């Protein structure tokens, strides 16, 4: 298939691009490189630098290439920032996605896989999280992703779009050959922040909240390896059905606390990694982990890497090799 990948120079997007290329698909990456990295894009993928806010550019790209499908990763994703700047998140994540869907509709592109999030569930009423639980996000980031899911559902009904939303949990790790990994500026994700302490790039790691109703008082999350995520996206794009909206959790099915991540990093790096306990951040649910049985039943997918120490070790391989990220390559 010919596939357009928005945000394909970003962390998850670039790993998915590699998987698509390796599976024999013809891939074009569309990215503004504000948070993505040109060096992360697979050399066999075409690249277009552009903005989703530029509807004319999107129509031109979409109309010229005759794509079969789209993978949509381009979005802002900092939960804390979304709480303080909600309109910025709605403009980028929702309004710009309308431009993308309109360009797809007008060009007759009938298949999309959307990068959604477990944040659509808010604070779930039970664990593990199943797809039938109420959708009640507690931060603007989660609200924008849920709004996008609604747009996909309604587009499937209105003009036959085949759409799959993958509600994944905490993406983590790096490519098995250490060639691409996680590089955000500023960095907001726990595992790379912990590893920056081991690299001597920061003095300590902050634990935001130690009084949550969890076994050790810190937030619990489901850490899904980025290469497993890429495999899930491949399964979804190859099997999406026209006129149907589907949404699936993508996770390991097990939760790991902040303290457990820090201990895993200490073991992997053989570094002390001082931790500083501080107040909770707004918009953080205490505990989130998936029941991934629905996507296993639908696509035959399941996570291969479920041991969090292995995930941390793969991230450490990338960060040791690239202590300054992509900027020195």
In short:
With 329 residues, this protein is of the alpha/beta class. Helices cover 39% and strands 17% of the residues. The strands form four sheets. It has a seven-stranded parallel beta sheet with strand order 3-2-1-4-5-6-11, sandwiched between helices.
Please give a handful of descriptors for the protein shown.
329 residues, two-stranded parallel sheet, Rossmann fold, seven-stranded parallel beta sheet, 13 strands, single chain
What does this structure look like?
Strand 1, helix 1 (11-22) and strand 2 form a beta-alpha-beta unit. 39% of the residues lie in helices and 17% in strands. The model has no long low-confidence stretch (mean pLDDT 96). It has ten helices and 13 strands. It starts with a strand and ends in an 8-residue tail after the last helix. The longest helix is centred in the first third of the chain and has 22 residues, at 86-107. It has helices at 11-22, 55-65, 79-84, 86-107, 140-159, 190-198, 226-239, 258-269, 293-299, 308-321, and strands at residues 2-6, 26-31, 46-49, 69-72, 111-117, 162-168, 170-172, 205-208, 220-221, 223-225, 245-250, 256-257, 275-278. The protein is an alpha/beta fold and 329 residues long. Helix 2 runs parallel beside helix 4 (86-107), helix 6 packs parallel to helix 8 and helix 8 (258-269) packs across helix 10 (308-321). It folds into two domains: 2-172 and 224-250, NAD(P)-binding Rossmann-like Domain (Rossmann fold, 3-Layer(aba) Sandwich), CATH 3.40.50; 190-221 and 253-328, UDP-galactose 4-epimerase, domain 1 (Alpha-Beta Complex), CATH 3.90.25. The strands form four sheets. It has a seven-stranded parallel beta sheet, with helices on both faces. Strands 7-10 form a two-stranded parallel sheet.
